[in-house]
Structures are given as structure tokens and as C-alpha cells.
Design brief:
Blueprint lengths: L15 H13 L11 H8 L3 H13 L3 E4 L3 E4 L4 H21 L5 H19 L3 H17 L4 H18 L5 H20 L3 H31 L1
Antiparallel strand pairs: 1-2
Length: about 230
């Protein structure tokens, strides 16, 4: 069944940014892997929008670093390079660590949401649904950023999370990556909810350092494998 944005609305009434939101979320869930062609005719029909709207949505994704235009091939979901990974983690350190610092001002429901997100990741990991576990883990880090109470930063991190998913996709077995980081999400979560902000910041900084090294190594290995 087509994933219509507005089932009864004329195609021209559907904004390109709404379509881009849907595509970005599919990237975040691991449903559109790096290198996947973004064929305007097929996607426009699937989403129930005009091809012009779809093309404009793809242009937005290109601007966000989630898609690329390929000569004679059209658009495709982007494959990240090492420089992209370093940039993503630089942004994550700035935003997530500041969110930890500012969490003293966060409402109780925002802190409770951290626990809900980690619990979802733990359940997915226990059932060995590793793609879902990765999505839930990204949801946890979105919830960390949400502690800042900034809709602008939430929107920025939505794109960052989607880019991060493209990096995760380079792991041949996502279990190898997610199995070690979901428990570390729990540690950060529990420290934040108990008011241990300094300890949470230290744990999160080490988490990001370790994660960046692993993702960089995997992106390099994947690029070398494609060239061989």
C-alpha cells in the first residue's frame, strides 16, 4: 500500500519538506541504505506525490548530506566518507554533552523519556532485532538532545541521526556494534536520571570517542572493499 503523505490531498498540496521528513526518517530506521537509488517515479508513486515534489524533497536531502546526485544515474542515498564521520561526531560532542550539562533544568517527563527509549533498545537487543535496536539507540540520543528544549536543535539532530545511521549501515553485522552500545546507553541514562551529570558526561564522552573510532575504521574498510 503506498505510504501516502495525505491520502485525500491533491499532489501539489504536499510540501517537499514533508516528503523529505518521511525519507529522512526511513534513512534513520535503516530502510534506505547507502547507495540506494532515489528514483523519482517509483518513490513519487509510493508516497503518493508528484515527481516534482519528490525531486525537490531529494534536493533537500542532498543539501543535508543524506543524498547525492550521480552523473547519468540520478540521486542515491549517500555513502559517508571518513571526513563526514568526524564532522558528525564533532557535532554530537557539542550538542549531547551540552545537553547533559543542562539536564538539571529538564522537566521530569523529558528525563523519563530517556528511560523509555533505552528500554525499547534493550528489548530489541534481547530479541536480536539489531536494526531496531540501532534505531532505538538513536532515539535515545535524540531524547538526550531534547533535554535542551530547543526545537531548532532537535531538527538539526534529526538530520545528524540519519547521517549516523548511514555510517552504521557499513557494519556487515550491526550486532557487532549495537550489542556493546545499548548497555552504555543505559549507563548514561541512569546517571542522568539520578543527577550524576558529571559522571554521565564522562561516560558519554568516552562512548562517543570509542564509537567514532569504530565507525571510522568500518567506513574505511567498506570503502577499501568497494575499490578492490
Amino acid at each position: 500500500m503506498p505510504e501516502e503523505i495525505h491520502a485525500d490531498a491533491p499532489q501539489g498540496d504536499v510540501a517537499a519538506d514533508t516528503v523529505a521528513d518521511r525519507l529522512r526518517e526511513r534513512i534513520s530506521r535503516g530502510e534506505l541504505a547507502p547507495g540506494t537509488p532515489l528514483r523519482d517515479a517509483a518513490l513519487a508513486g509510493e508516497l503518493g506525490v508528484s515527481r516534482n515534489t519528490l525531486r525537490e524533497a531529494v534536493r533537500l536531502l542532498v543539501h543535508e548530506g543524506l543524498a547525492v546526485h550521480q552523473l547519468y544515474k540520478g540521486a542515491a542515498v549517500k555513502r559517508l566518507e571518513v571526513a563526514d564521520v568526524h564532522d558528525i561526531y564533532a557535532a554530537r560532542r557539542c550538542i549531547e554533552l551540552r545537553a547533559v550539562e543542562e539536564s538539571v533544568y529538564s522537566p521530569a517527563e523529558a528525563l523519563d523519556d530517556l528511560d523509555r527509549r533505552v528500554t525499547e533498545a534493550e528489548r530489541a537487543a534481547a530479541a536480536e532485532r539489531w536494526n531496531e535496536a540501532g534505531t532505538c539507540s538513536l532515539g535515545f540520543h535524540r531524547a538526550v538532545v531534547h533535554l535542551l528544549g530547543s526545537a531548532r536543535l532537535d531538527r538539526f539532530f534529526d538530520t545528524t541521526a540519519a547521517q549516523l545511521r548511514l555510517a552504521f549501515a557499513e557494519f556487515p553485522q550491526e550486532q557487532d556494534f549495537q550489542a556493546q552500545y545499548v548497555p552504555r546507553d543505559r549507563v548514561v541514562c541512569d546517571l542522568l536520571r539520578s543527577g550524576g551529570r558529571a559522571e554521565a558526561a564522562a561516560a558519554l564522552r568516552q562512548y562517543l570517542d570509542d564509537s567514532e573510532r569504530e565507525v571510522v575504521d568500518m567506513v574505511r574498510a567498506a570503502a577499501a572493499a568497494r575499490q578492490s
